């Protein structure tokens, strides 16, 4: 997000502090005062799970690791990760540092959907840093064995066990499998493989178009504008049990009219994707633009225009 906001660039140099240097677990043995580009640090994090690089990047972007962790927790809350609390930037065991498979899946989905460039790092099998002196080997062995694998990240600690968030894509279907608490790497990858295999065998990505007669605007009372432009946020596709995708339907739920003021982005209604058993997914329909409440001058202009047209 800092990259997309233009606050940092991949070519920026990231310094290594004493704090980052003292990180345990997997690392690339950064030295205090050493500098690598942000691009190189991201390679170290995504390919080799380098804790020292993760903390160095956190300090670079946040000013300090605690400040960056505060941002992590705030973002987790925004994403709906209700059972997650971060205590550090690298995932090492610490009192109160907790998450769940569901929350890891939510975080993984956010990365893949809205920051797809992450795949450029997570799908690299081998790379080098420091002019070839440091070799990076990806800890995700599924890159070599699973058809359609697109990432994402492994992790291992004493309390969490051997873990992975694995993502894969085949045709139009993209899946995420999260495994926590395995006893070995072999068990971790086998469990992730089984989950992904089940998903691809049982489900399909179904095209669910927005109804052709879905309103594009709604009338607005007491507004500077007579109508509000609507924005449909529903995805073009929805997950369905294999063979049942054609039975899905999209239904629009909207009020008959609105009253100003209306803020841009306000939720106006919903597009409900349904099957015979009920609603599978509800997607918000939002205000594409704001509509201010009608001012005295606006009312005056309308009266004058009306009189002019009837004169």
Automatic annotation (TrEMBL):
GO BP of this protein: cell wall organization; peptidoglycan biosynthetic process; proteolysis; regulation of cell shape
Keyword Metal-binding found: no
Biological pathway: Cell wall biogenesis; peptidoglycan biosynthesis
Enzyme class: hydrolase
Family annotation (SUPFAM superfamilies): beta-lactamase/transpeptidase-like, Penicillin-binding protein associated domain
Coiled coil: none
Reactions accelerated catalytically: Preferential cleavage: (Ac)2-L-Lys-D-Ala-|-D-Ala. Also transpeptidation of peptidyl-alanyl moieties that are N-acyl substituents of D-alanine
Cell wall biogenesis/degradation recorded as keyword: yes
Alphabetic keyword roster: Carboxypeptidase, Cell shape, Cell wall biogenesis/degradation, Hydrolase, Peptidoglycan synthesis, Protease, Signal
Molecular function GO labels: serine-type D-Ala-D-Ala carboxypeptidase activity
This enzyme's EC code(s): 3.4.16.4
Domain Peptidase S11 D-Ala-D-Ala carboxypeptidase A C-terminal: 203-293
Function noted in UniProt: Removes C-terminal D-alanyl residues from sugar-peptide cell wall precursors.
Recorded family membership: Belongs to the peptidase S11 family.
Protein name from the UniProt record: serine-type D-Ala-D-Ala carboxypeptidase
Organism: human gut metagenome
């Amino acid at each position: 997000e800092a990259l997309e906001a233009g606050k940092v660039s991949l070519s920026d140099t990231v310094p290594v502090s004493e704090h980052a240097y003292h990180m345990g677990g997997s690392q690339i043995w950064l030295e205090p005062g050493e500098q690598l580009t942000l691009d190189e640090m991201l390679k170290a994090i995504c390919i080799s799970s380098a804790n020292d690089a993760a903390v160095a990047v956190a300090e670079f972007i946040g000013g300090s690791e605690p400040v960056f962790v505060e941002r992590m927790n705030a973002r987790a809350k925004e994403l709906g990760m209700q059972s997650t609390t971060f205590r550090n930037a690298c995932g090492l065991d610490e009192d109160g540092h907790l998450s769940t498979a569901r929350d890891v899946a939510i975080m993984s989905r956010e990365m893949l959907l809205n920051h797809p460039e992450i795949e450029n790092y997570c799908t690299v099998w081998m790379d080098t840093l420091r002019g070839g002196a440091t070799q990076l080997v990806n800890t995700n062995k599924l890159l070599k064995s699973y058809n359609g694998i697109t990432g994402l990240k492994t992790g291992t600690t004493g309390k969490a066990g051997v873990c992975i968030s694995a993502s894969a894509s085949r045709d139009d279907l993209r899946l995420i499998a999260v495994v926590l608490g395995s006893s070995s790497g072999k068990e971790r990858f086998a469990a992730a493989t089984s989950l992904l295999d089940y998903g691809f065998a049982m489900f399909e990505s179904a095209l669910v178009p927005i109804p052709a007669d879905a309103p594009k605007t709604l009338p607005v009372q007491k507004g500077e504008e007579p109508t509000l432009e609507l924005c449909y946020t529903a995805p073009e596709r929805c997950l369905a049990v294999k063979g049942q995708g054609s039975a899905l339907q999209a239904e629009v739920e909207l009020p008959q009219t609105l009253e100003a003021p209306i803020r841009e982005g306000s939720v106006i209604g919903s597009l409900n994707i349904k099957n015979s058993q009920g609603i599978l997914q509800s997607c918000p329909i939002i205000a594409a633009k704001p509509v201010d409440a009608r001012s005295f001058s606006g009312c005056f202009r309308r009266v004058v225009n009306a009189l002019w047209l009837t004169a």
